[in-house]
Amino acid sequence: MNERKQQAIKRHYAKLVDCLNPLRVMDRLAYLLLLEEMELIRKSQFTPQERTRELIAIILRKNEELRPFDCFIEALKKTDENHKTMAEAILKTYKHENGANVAEKVPSISHLDAGETEDDLKM
């Protein structure tokens, strides 16, 4: 993830750690995360705050080509109203710090956008 997007998330880090439901958000990011990453986040001895820290750390390390910022924002929006509010705050920070060059809306993300083929999605 590029530095500007990382900074927008980091500005809200404490609020995310306090309020985020990491397993519900992770479920919406399953197409972006490796199985090993998901297993690490799910560790039973982790507190919700530790799971959130791990989830954010993993997302921040993702390659920009996978659009982790957009995926994270969309996952937050789709989780519930509280998470949607956090997504909007992160987007507002990102837009404010980057001026008018930022698009007004994060594009919708599909599994195919994240690099999966239609064959991967068939069961």
Automatic annotation (TrEMBL):
Signal peptide: none
One family name in Pfam for this protein: CARD_2
Segments forming domain CARD: 1-83
PROSITE patterns according to UniProt: CARD
Cellular-component GO terms for this entry: cytoplasm
Keywords: Immunity, Innate immunity, Isopeptide bond, Phosphoprotein, Ubl conjugation
UniProt record, GO biological process: innate immune response; regulation of apoptotic process
Annotated protein name in UniProt: CARD domain-containing protein
